[in-house]
Write a structure and sequence with these properties.
With 341 residues, the chain is α+β, with helices and mostly antiparallel strands. Helices cover 33% and strands 23% of the residues. Helix 6 runs antiparallel to helix 7. InterPro entries: KwaB-like (IPR032359).
Amino acid sequence: MDKSQLIETIKKAVSTNLNMYFVTRILKEGVKNNAKVLEKFDFKVYQIEITDEIRTYLFDLSMKQFEKIEKNNELDFVDYDVISDDTEHLFTYSMLNKVGSFSDVVYNQLNNSPQKITNLNQILSSESLWAYCVGFQIDSENTFYTFRKISAGKVGIDEKDDNQKKGISNTIRTFFDTNTNTLSLLKGETVYLDKNIDCIFYGEVFYILRKFYFEQILGLQEEYKKRAEEIAVTLKKHVCFGEVSLLSNKIQKSPSFHKKLMKLEKLGSLNNLNERTLKKLEKLGKSKKAPINIKDGKIIFETDQDIDNTIKLLCDYYKTGDYSGNSYGTYAGKIQKTEEV
């Protein structure tokens, strides 16, 4: 499906056929510590009844987001990649053959009359409100869904039992009553909805408007961290590396670094690193003013700069334009298949 086909599908939606859902996340019972992050959690879908006013609000803000996609002629569909360039894209992420817990949300739960919420407080006592979803039914066979990540600060719970309160809260929820011109306490459970959409799901594909939040919704960011830790173990055991314990600290404090290690794995650069190619890497580092720290014939990490230089070189960060001859520095890019002449 191309952009024009997606827009034509979206235009068939009407506000009267709009439903709203909350998606919660809960840790699975008995899950093993070494289990994949994508398989550690269960997601549950709940339908929530909404007023016509909220239904109209959600429909209108969604249409405004869709219009931006339609009017942006430079917005192209691009397959999702862990690291991408700064060019504006509409990334696509296929859920076909994906086995993570979120696939159950889009393939099963949303299509099988989810439980309706009667007491949000009770649900949130044991589950985390993870995202909200809006379903647009086109006909009896087709529905597309939009998702928006919900942060903890966007949810308010009214503790009716004063005995459960452990002290004075750091914040209170208030609203300005225009009838009395006074600021009053806002009581009851509250969920703040904003004007953004993170992704659209239709026909087994996610169309990603906000990559960072999409990765949060599906749990990809947590999976990237776990994968980065596994790559670090492989690197530590590699014959061309010595003391690299500093790498673990960087993984813990820098989420953006996780993707760089995954890029390294995808390129397969470690598989080609040996005594001969290490000398080539050392020479390249000097020419790019990104020297690697080598002692006794092995790469070691004594500073963050040692790590950054090494990973950049192994990930082909330094690139040169074939036509312009200009030099670039970026982790983005895909290996292009060369056509046989």
